[in-house]
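Recap quiz, item 2
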Amino acid sequence: MQDIATQCPKFIVKPHGGAVKEIAITKSEFTIGRKDGNDLVVEDPAVSGRHARVVKIHAVYFLEDLGSTNGTFVNGQKIERRQLRDTDVVAIGKHRLIFREENATPAAEGAGAVSASDRTMVITGSTSPSRGLSAQKTGTIQVVSGRTNRKEYQLTKQLTIIGSSPDATIKLAGWFTPKTAAMIGRRGQGYYIAAADDGKKVLVNNQAVKGQVDLKDGDLVEVAGARMYFYLRDPAAR
Amino acid sequence: MCAATRNIRSGSGSRMMSSYAAKSDVGLRRSHNEDRFCADPELGLYLVCDGMGGCNAGEVASGIAVEVIHRHLADASRKGQLPFIGEYDPNFLPQTNRLASAVRLANHTVHRESWRRPEYAGMGTTVVSVLLADRILSVAHVGDSRAYLIRGNAMQLLTADHSLVCDQVRQGLLTEEEAEQSFQKHVLTRALGVESTVEVELGEVPVMSGDIVLLCSDGLTSGVAPDEVLRAVRYVNDPDAMTERLIRLANAAGGNDNTTVVVVVLRESVPPGLWRRIRKRLRN
């Protein structure tokens, strides 16, 4: 993994409201300014002709302000000279430069660098891995008896309300039907049913539900007089 | 600018009566507190934000977020017809979408402010927010501040940290123990205000009388094990005493960071079975 260890750090350059670009810091002296001839040319009237430079000393990168008119800021602090660390945010004019040193390893940080690792930082753009939503099974409710608005329901919601409430997916008719008689929730790969504890009784396989219970494929559910079956099938089987 | 305590107040915005307490502490190592919180039992809104950024930018970010989220929900409850910020997700209830809308608006505002001054460059904040309506708890979060639901002897984590180590645990690259030890524990993959838009993670859970909802910044969870947290709230009735205990635990574990805890204890306004008892008495 030699090539990774010698990889150059880079700046992610963000102009206000403009397109983001990346530039590698390939030289041991890397200049930033408005005028041509700088390694990073920043078209911004608030940036000086020769604004700042990055100097590499051994394996460490330093940022120096070159006497700019409007100053150079690192993580909100105005600096003259400052060591750059991974994810530092540099502000010059209306531009933000994010310093990325991706091969920064625990060894490179060292045990002494507690203050740096203690600081909360953000790496955006690395979208969290999707939790396999496509592979997730979707539960179904099939109504056998009772006054419901439909005979079959796909349980795609996080929380499916059974009752007379306008927010209810499984709508029950009837004068004394509670607004929320029960709720079916998703958790991980499975489903559970929760009784609304002031409402009418909720039964699963003829057993009264106290609090909430997990639902299994083929369970018989009774809510406020309506009887329905819960199915949990593989999406591939459809 | 450090510790802030709110005493118990009760609200009856929904059929659930809730008593709550909130406490924020600077800890033992930091000079200032970048955490902010809000508790509004009338709206059923409780939230914690943990700010980050140089100089005072961290508390600026968390302060803006708390204010914007609270105002958006207060406006929505007054006017009703307030446009939603961002995409409406039909898999969640209207109140959960409203909470998401508030968090997105806060992201927009913090991001806009971060460009206004160079001292604010790169500032951001976590947010964990819950909205209690009837028997449903809506949860919206970004970052590594957490929400727990405590029922009896079980404590359920309602949020998944948006952090590098948490992603690696999900992918099976790290174990929970390795994650606890990792030097990258503080690296977030999502935060409010850093980008012009943010993906807000949403959740909904049914709640019942006796449940306890706990919101906290990572000052609590980075040093205190879940079973210690559970023990601190389990055998106490007074939410104020719970928050006191939790802050004490966080500081006993090193107090490396600011710690903020909001505890909401849910109680039924009409005890279950009351009607049955009345009917029984009438018959006799």
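The helical segments of chain A are 2-5, 106-109, 114-118.
The longest helix of chain A spans residues 114-118.
End of item.
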